[in-house]
Design a protein that fits this description.
This protein is α+β, with helices and mostly antiparallel strands. Helix content is 30%, strand content 35%. It is built from four helices and eight strands; from the N terminus they run E-E-H-H-E-E-E-H-E-H-E-E. The strands form two sheets. It has a five-stranded antiparallel beta sheet with strand order 1-2-3-4-5, sandwiched between helices. Strands 6-8-7 form a three-stranded antiparallel beta sheet.
């Protein structure tokens, strides 16, 4: 499969139908999904994958599969999502790693690469991350890629902090 973005340790590529087992591993894991409304089953994982493929086709981006550059092992999904927030279309940097890859700096490395791709390649003016107030690890990742907490909102019936970062080159 073709990749379009790399870092020191990671390769990013578009999702494919063949990623279902890996997506299911993450979205069916209650620890990974603890800040989401619910843990998904395999059917939910298929729906998740289908939505990402639809977003990729429609928007030109979505969450991408992140693999280990050295081993090719899939590690998570990180990318850009168009989200409707308070009546405005925003570009979200979203991220989810399989639990075995937590606390090794991969999320920080991946989100920084996605931020740079969004700002320098796509020319996006602003990026956000929508994070549950109790999700401290995810907040740390957003802070590491440069986003700051902007406001607390109710999004999809749950409280979320909006972390945001403006692209200073687009002002």
């Amino acid at each position: 499969m073709c990749h379009f973005l790399t870092t020191t340790r990671l390769i990013f590529r578009e999702m494919a139908l063949s990623d279902l087992d890996f997506i299911a591993e993450m979205v069916c894991d209650p620890v990974v999904m603890q800040f989401y409304p619910k843990v998904l089953d395999r059917s939910g994982a298929q729906d998740w994958l289908n939505r990402m493929l639809e977003r990729q086709a429609r928007d030109g981006h979505s969450l991408w599969i992140v693999t280990n550059k050295a081993t090719g092992e899939p590690m998570g999904q990180v990318g850009l999502l168009k989200q409707e927030v308070d009546g405005t279309t925003e570009t979200e940097i979203g991220y989810m790693l399989a639990r075995r890859h937590w606390q090794q700096g991969y999320a920080r490395e991946a989100t920084a690469a996605v931020r740079d791709y969004a700002f320098h390649t796509l020319g996006i003016r602003r990026a956000i991350s929508l994070i549950r107030p109790t999700n401290i690890p995810s907040q740390r990742v957003a802070l590491a890629y440069g986003a700051k907490p902007e406001r607390l909102i109710v999004w999809r019936d749950l409280e979320h902090l909006v972390f945001s970062l403006a692209n200073s080159e687009c002002r």
